[in-house]
Design goal:
Blueprint (H helix, E strand, L loop, with lengths): L1 H7 L19 H8 L4 E5 L6 H15 L4 E6 L3 H4 L2 H11 L14 E3 L5 E6 L18 E4 L7 H8 L11 E6 L7 H7 L4 E4 L9 E2 L2 E2 L1 H11 L3 H7 L16 H4 E2 L9 E7 L6 E8 L5 E9 L4 H12 L6 E4 L3 H9 L5 E2 L4 H12 L9 E4 L8 H5 L6 H7 L21 H14 L6 H7 L2
Parallel strand pairs: 1-6, 1-7, 2-4, 2-5, 5-6, 10-16, 11-14, 13-16, 14-15
Antiparallel strand pairs: 3-4, 8-9, 11-12, 12-13
Amino acid sequence: MEAEYLHRHRAIPNPFLMIKKPLPELRGANKLFFDSTEREIINSGPAGTGKSRAALEKLHYYAQRYPKCRLLMTRQTRESMTESCLVTFERDVLGENVTMGEASRKSRKSYDYPNGSTIVVAGLTQNRKDNKSNVMSTEYDMIYVQEATEVTEEVWEKLSTRLRSYVLPFQQILGDCNPDHERHWLKVRGEEGRGRMVYSLHTDNPMLYRAGGWTREGHDYIDRLKQLTGVMYERLFLGKWCHAEGAVYEINHNVHIIDPFKIPDSWRRIRGIDFGYTNPFVCHWYAIDPDGRLYLYREIYKTRTLCEDHAKRIVELTGKERIDITLADHDAEDAATLYRHGVKTYPAKKVIKRGIELVQSRIKIQGDGKPRLYIFRDALVDRDETLVFEKQPFCTVQEFDAYIYPKGIDGKVNKETPIDNYNHGMDALRYVVTHLDDRPGMSRADIEKHIP
């Protein structure tokens, strides 16, 4: 089918093909995704179905066969691509013995082909140091958005307006994603016919399933996914678009998750810390605007790192910012370690039920049409690849869908105490909100007198 299509459009042979190898086996939804020439298409499926590999093979395929075409590989933040799609692209698509330029993977801005084609690599968030180029200022033939659920519909539609290079015989925006909640704009867009959505399965990935049975890698991977619970199990193993039943907090990603902006120096700042080593260590930086709204603008969310190393990173990231107070979990040894490095903490008030009610109040849309809690879209500063590999939440935003109340023996949700899991960022958030809202009007001096 693809060969007939290319012949019909008289693709120009490229004598400088980088790879002397056939395409990998493409099956099911991945083959439909690769073959599609529609204006926009999304490949949705559980973790590990080969979605990203199919998209990257498609970019490479057209870059080789159409000289001087321009393609874009993007995601919400550039740093999240370094150890995800760029590894797959260089190791599996290009091949380990092929390089394109001298830039390292971390700093790479493009893959430039001998035939004049270019695959641009860029993040969509523009205020980070690694996002100096504006992807909206140029034109492309094809745009690939990895983890498309991370972006807003507005960004998706703006990207679509950049499809006007016209070197390829068709112009296309394509994306892949794991399922999210069932009313996510991406799912609704597919249901309304404004973009095609295909649904990949684990059996579509020949690394996991071959010759009518699971490979050794397939058995291991599927067993790991089966260990997930709640909405993580439903989405990443079963591939369902669904909401988290019994979710403690219900946020609207189109409302509560916002693009970052420069925070005025005059705004108050506060930190919240939840200690951990095997479980994630979490440090949150919050800014408070003149109306009392809270903005989570920076986050460390990392496992298997010494508290001393976290302390150094906190000092480095904070720089000259003035932090009013840092609330932390009650671990004297870790608190002492932070203190030795200049990070003074105060024991947080760890009331769970009352704290949850206060956070829920901040999440609620108020009379002015705004909530009292926002989270910057790129708040995470260091992605924990171990958590990514294990398919666990790797930032606080991902905990919102996973932090749930248990069900009773009657099958109904029991809203007394949440399950003690996926709550590390939730705890740090609760410490800060409880401090601000449970003792209104108290100054830092009052707090220091109150807390031993």
